[in-house]
Design goal:
CATH class of the largest domain: Alpha Beta
Radius of gyration: 24 Å
Structural class: alpha+beta
Largest sheet: 7 strands, mixed
Strand order of the largest sheet: 12-18-17-16-13-14-15
Distance between the termini: 17 Å
Strand content: 25-35%
CATH superfamily of the largest domain: Endonuclease Chain A
CATH architecture of the largest domain: 2-Layer Sandwich
Shape: globular
Number of helices: 14
Number of domains: 3
Amino acid sequence: MRVLSPTVNNLTVKAYAGSTGVLLAMDLPKAATHGLLGFAIERDCLSGPLAGKPEGHKWLEGLLNFPGLPHEPGQPVPTNVAPIQKFRWSDYTVYPASDYAYTVHPVYGQPGNPDVKPGPRVQVSTASEQAQQFAIFNRAVAASQAFARKFPQVAIDLWAAKKKKKKLTTVKLPPEAYDWLSRGLLKHLTDFLAEATDATWAADIAIYEYELEAIRDAVELAVGRGAEVRLLYHAKAGDSQTTANKKSLKTPPLTAANVTTIPRVTKAIMHDKFIVLSKRQGGARTPMAVLCGSTNFTENGVFRQGNVVHISRDAAMAQSYLDQFERLVTTAKDPAQTKKAIDQNNPIAVNGPVFVGFSPRTGKPDLAEFTSVIDGVHRDVLFCTVFALYATVEKALLGKAHDTILRYGLQNTRSTITGIHADRTARFAATAFLNEGLEGWLKESTAGQVGNILVHTKLVIADFTSDQPTLISGSHNLSANASGSNDENFLIIKMPAGDTHLADIYGVELMRLYDHYRFRWFTKEGAKKGKPAVPPILCTDDTWTKPYYGGDALKTADRERFAGK
């Protein structure tokens, strides 16, 4: 949902509401920036869990303060005391299907004595969980500093275990910490399975990693209610993941007559993670909904790595996934036949608003389409990627030095994009930085994380700030292996004019991840340019605004494009 505010005191605000975040883009004439110390943002919860409660009204907070004013490092400060010195700010403490009002105040005066002027008010509704298309992101490691503030003793215990080189898998978090990290993702996944209420339902599950107990319990409960369950899982000779999957499948409920477990024998990876729910009648399935995305059914996938679950109640989309499931079952022991079937039945032809694609396929037409979408951007491209990208995709994301396209991206592997290695000596490691204006970050080891993958989401949004963005999302890693060898699925969604709600869900969350790691760069990597390795502080006058009005081409474009210009 996007809403543009009226103009008050020369200031206008454009709000982008996702499912668990709201992005606010501020704009005002250059003349009105004289003496501007920043913006104070006031929020009212009009409906949802916080409505009518004292905490339903608050000033949004930042982590920076003016020099010389008392401030405990790492602790937030209300923006009416220490205003935001950016033309874009986000609120990630919102709930889905709720109404919020934001009043953005221009702040003048002096540090320590701010003059908070009246400003425009904008009202938005976060995405409904009952929408035909809905997506939910976990908090994951991008919330590391917030996690340390909210669960200080847990953070201390995790770092102590890491320092002693203990296996972090042995350090269990309290339930409330897991809930906070999941941010509803696990509940949506298990609630989806709970819709299979009786024998009139079928659940077809294609999964790479079948491990997390809470998800396994949800599957077994569906079996106990009589639903017909088929579980297709990654199986590869001598493969540790196959061993783990088989161990998880050795439970009495999964030996029931209404369960079929199917090993997907492959020399590559059965990398899918999707569930199709169907109504059953006379042995036939009528698909009703599909759950897909990047989330592996593991503790890391649900709680620690940045991931998304996408739920669609579009019958045609669900049918596409069911058709692919049938192809995978039919060719479970012969992936070469899978490739032939996909080539024949799932050609890349993005003619309508939604294309559902699968792999493996021949000739890399999926990668060619991804490249074409990215090359065709006019305003901006946002992305999260992981592992080694295919060369043409990477080149398209990188673009040309100093071109007019805004490029905000995170990449979880060393590449042209990520460049410099992150500083592993820092408690909150910084991002890597590329001089052409594209920032990324590299794999790092963080307390509580098993392994090195932190952002596992595979996501590209082309022209997010336009009225017709294009979204690419799924399990596909945008790599040669994902195209020609692995079992994968992906969505290419071209938003109809004015209907941007899916792009808003994805884009707001992508910017959460991006801004988090960008802040790390300012905090730590700035020392490499001769700046002290300390958290930045607020500017005491209006000079912070100059880059946004021609002083820096990227910052100027950021202000203008997010404001809708």
